[in-house]
Amino acid sequence: MIAAVWGTGEFGKYIKQYFNNEKISVEYFIDQNRDALTLNGTQIILLPEKYLEELDIVLIGMLKEIPFKDVVKKLRMAGINKIGIVPAYIFMSGKEISIKDIFWLDLKKEIMPYLETNIIDSCNLKCKGCTHFSNLYTNNSIYDIELFKKDLSKLEENFNILYFRLLGGEPLLNPDLVQYIKITRTILPSTDIRIVTNGLLILQQKEDVLFHVMKQYNISFDISSYQPTRKIKHSIIKKLDAYDLRYRFSIDIETFNALLTMHGKNNPQISQEKCFNRGCRFLREGKLYKCPLDGLMYKYKEYFGIDNLPIDSGVNLYMDDFTGRINALDDAISLCKYCSEKPRIFKWDVARKPEIDDWLDC
Ligand code: SF4
Ligand code: SF4
């Protein structure tokens, strides 16, 4: 079979070099623009070109910059019926790429490049202005595990979910984290699945069951580098390396953004285009939201007794035409008007007594 790689960047070159299968020969690059006709002796083709008729497979590296929905649509129109996504962690590992590493898209389903959910709402760190309002939750509110399973299955039946992050709050506070991991991997066998943590509880894992399960189920950590995390970073690395787990630390987090306004007069297009939640989809208790802010705003309103912010735009997963409604979340929602086009930046800190202004731009 003849394959092409999408993109001529470093990831594309890596796929060309390291994809190894005796039945599939990678013979082309495909790109949106072309400065040269070849790259390292391999022909570069543009869409649409006659060569696509000869192609059986296209491989795409999982980079967040790639507009997957658009790219897959174009490839489908060019007659490509087999498209595989190569996870970013393979690229980072420098290993050979085998067939089983690849997420082969089910082209009858829609594409959802990124999804996240809170498996617990509270957190042990309580950052001032937490974008998930975790410092407003006083009890351990947890996503019911049976509902989580049902909701995720419903989404998976209709979408190729490329990347899924379990977060909170602090997911390591959820006593059933191991069960959530097993359920998630069973429903999403090929998705890049990560647990987002502030890292502070990693050293306290007693039986290390979590690490064995993460290794077995191919799950990695995304660790947010707050000041208290950085103090124990060396020990965290030592522990995770001992279990041969995959992990990555974020850049050092020194500041947070306060993006809410009460006037609702911002340009929603500009706000959402500049938004750090751009491209994010948030799953919560039977609904899919454009972003965690929309899904969790109820807590801010309830805690501070606010009634002038819009009701949420979450899509009920059990309504007719919910996939169409989910695709419409690509457009701005009512809440985007309340998000600043230029958020206030403040120094990261913990706030055990939250104030309404912690989230406000002005
Ligand atoms: S560590 Fe993350 S979830 Fe916890 S309070 Fe801070 S920002 Fe929120
Ligand atoms: S409401 Fe819109 S602008 Fe605000 S965080 Fe969500 S996506 Fe971004």
From TrEMBL:
Top-level lineage group: Bacteria
Keywords carried by this UniProt record: Iron, Iron-sulfur, Metal-binding, S-adenosyl-L-methionine
Pfam families linked: Radical_SAM
Gene Ontology molecular function, alphabetical: catalytic activity; iron-sulfur cluster binding; metal ion binding
Domain Radical SAM core residue range list: 118-229
Keyword Transmembrane helix on entry: no
Protein name per the record: Radical SAM superfamily protein
